[in-house]
Write a structure and sequence with these properties.
Helix content is 4%, strand content 52%. The protein is mainly β. It has 2 domains: 94 residues, Immunoglobulin-like (Sandwich); 231 residues, YVTN repeat-like/Quinoprotein amine dehydrogenase (Methylamine Dehydrogenase, Chain H, 7 Propeller). It has an 8-stranded mixed sheet with strand order 25-26-27-28-10-31-30-29. Strands 2-9-8-5-6 form a 5-stranded mixed sheet, with no helix packed on it. Strands 11-12-13-14 form a 4-stranded antiparallel sheet, with no helix packed on it. A hairpin with a 4-residue loop joins β30 and β31. The chain is elongated. About 3% of the residues have low confidence.
Length: 351
């Protein structure tokens, strides 16, 4: 319990989900029989879905939906058992369409599905320490062919740019500056293309990874901000500063789906820079000296890296928050830094 409380302290400061109670939809004819529902459930649990017929109508059938996906139907007022096993973490918006006497009516309610996993506190060792440009307001960090790429924002009078360089010497191989109207955010490289986000412009850029020619400017399909971005070799994963991580098709930039990030029963907001490492998403939490290791299928936080000791070693007066994660598959090590940090750390993670 002591260890669990310590992990909670590391990530707390994030907004927690609302506690207890269900959210009922207004309906004068039928309502969900949800008086015994809890506010929060875990995936191993089930719900008995049923409808209250206080007006004594003759009910033909009821069709049930969860987050607008049909989950089953029953004749009359028979109850339906709904397993939460394969549902995404977050709010489950339940809807019942009740057919009666040649008419239909809708009843709604809501519960919250939280994680059943207690995150592990992961250990790390520092392999090397390298210099980092203190004029780099780091937003994205990624390796490609043993070369480090970095995207920056324009905070603290720093300009936004895309750069690739020798992480050992700091030698800059190539750099593209963004128009001052854009605040640069995360980057990822997939299918020989560099994807770069911007913060509040709802705009992304796609460059040819060889020539750095701008191939396309795209607009976010959703009304979201651009924060972190990574990929699994097929799909792109994008954060927006909330608890959501979106899945994007890199071919057409369409949003396919999203997950909600939870640490136990707490919703983790301010998800920032992302990195795909061995089937998991490593995520910076904005203004926290910690990285959460997220299961990309469920959104559950499975591990936490506490980097408060690294933050304390930074001496540059303008240095801001931890941000920037890059995995080097050649060395199997992780590189982490922060906004205007004078150091970048190469680390190796263990349980």
């Amino acid at each position: 319990m002591k260890n669990y409380n310590f992990l909670f302290i590391i990530l707390l400061g994030i907004a927690l989900a609302n506690c207890g109670g269900t959210k009922k939809g207004e309906n004068s004819i039928f309502t969900f029989d949800d008086s015994k529902y809890k506010g929060k459930y875990q995936s191993q649990e089930s719900l008995n879905l049923g409808i209250l017929n206080t007006n004594s109508k003759t009910v033909d059938s009821v069709v049930y939906f969860n987050n607008d996906v049909k989950i089953g139907s029953n004749k009359g007022l028979e109850k339906l058992t709904f397993s939460l096993k394969d549902q995404k973490l977050g709010y489950q918006n339940l809807k019942a369409v009740v057919y009666f006497e040649g008419e239909n009516s809708i009843a709604t309610t809501r519960i919250e599905l939280v994680s059943s996993i207690t995150p592990k506190l992961l250990n790390y060792t520092i392999v090397n320490t390298y210099p980092h440009d203190t004029e780099s307001y780091t937003q994205g960090l990624e390796f490609n062919k043993d070369t480090l790429y970095e995207s920056t924002g324009s905070g603290n009078n720093c300009k936004s740019y895309l750069r690739k360089y020798d992480y050992k010497s700091g030698e800059i191989f190539k750099q593209t500056d963004l128009d001052p109207m854009y605040f640069g955010e995360g980057i990822t490289i997939v299918n020989n293309q560099i994807f770069q986000l911007t913060w509040q412009n709802k705009t992304g850029f796609i460059y040819n990874a060889n020539t750095w020619k701008l191939e396309k400017t795209f607009t976010y399909e959703k009304d979201i901000e651009g924060w972190g971005i990574t990929n699994d070799g097929k799909n792109i994963y994008q954060s927006d500063g909330t608890e959501k991580i979106w899945t994007m098709n890199p071919a057409n930039q369409k949003m396919i789906d999203h997950i909600n990030v939870y640490s136990a029963d707490a919703k983790i907001k301010s998800i920032n820079e992302l990195e795909w490492i061995n089937g998991k998403i490593y995520a910076n939490i904005y203004q926290k000296d910690a990285i959460a290791v997220v299961n990309p299928a469920t959104g559950a936080v499975e591990g936490i890296l506490d980097f408060s000791a690294l933050r304390k070693s930074i001496q540059f007066p303008q240095a801001e928050v931890l941000n920037g994660i890059a995995y080097n598959p050649k060395t199997k090590t992780i590189f982490v830094t922060g906004k205007q940090w004078e150091k970048m750390f190469e680390i190796r993670v263990s349980e």
